[in-house]
Design a protein that fits this description.
single chain, alpha+beta, Threonyl-tRNA Synthetase, Chain A, domain 2, four-stranded antiparallel β-sheet, about 55% helix
């Protein structure tokens, strides 16, 4: 038996209902927040896995590009080796350099030596160019004369000679051209002459 007035009873029931609704709302919000947090964590994990997968894919792609590049280099090297092995011209490059070195005046410095195989009507030749600087035109003329008189050099010519400053001193810059006939036999110096002795 409830002796409280009806309005108090009604108010108590309303409070109880409000409390239950509030508790239900709080529980619902907690569930929603938990679900959102779980979804966020799952999404972050998925993004992290995606980034890792993308990184691995990029690494694999880089390795594939590197492998392709190495294959191309290998093919070029094999092609060069095959051309070299099939080339019928044998040439003692060290002996040629020693011969040129022995002909140089002491007052001359060579900065560039170029040798190219060329095909002429008479057969294969080596087209050579010497470039550098000397103390005077007389030194350059002496080199041209020495090359002209020495086998295997032919068609020796001075391309140009002009003034130049080297370490604060005046010098003559030059370039000399020559041809070597690969069809002929000739002997070259095998050693560089130092101080007049081989």
């Amino acid at each position: 038996m409830n002796l409280l007035p009806e309005q108090y009873v009604e108010r108590s029931k309303n409070k109880a209902r409000s409390s239950r609704v509030a508790i239900a709302i709080i529980i619902t919000l907690c569930v929603v927040a938990t679900a959102a947090t779980h979804s966020r964590l799952a999404m972050n994990s998925a993004v992290e896995h995606l980034v890792i997968a993308q990184s691995r894919a990029n690494s694999a792609l880089e390795l594939e590009v590197d492998a392709t590049s190495l294959e191309l280099r290998k093919a070029k090297l094999e092609s060069f080796i095959n051309r070299y092995n099939n080339e019928k011209i044998t040439f003692a490059m060290g002996d040629l350099v020693a011969t040129i070195t022995n002909l140089l005046p002491t007052s001359m410095t060579i900065e560039d030596l170029s040798l190219d195989i060329v095909q002429t009507e008479e057969g294969k030749r080596i087209s050579g160019r010497l470039a550098g600087f000397a103390s005077s035109d007389e030194s350059i003329a002496s080199l041209v004369s020495s090359l002209h008189e020495k086998e295997p050099f032919g068609e020796v010519s001075m391309d140009f000679s002009k003034s130049r400053t080297v370490r604060g001193m005046r010098a003559r810059e030059f370039r000399v051209s020559f041809l070597i006939n690969l069809e002929n036999d000739w002997e070259l110096s095998r050693m560089v002459v130092v101080g007049g002795e081989e």
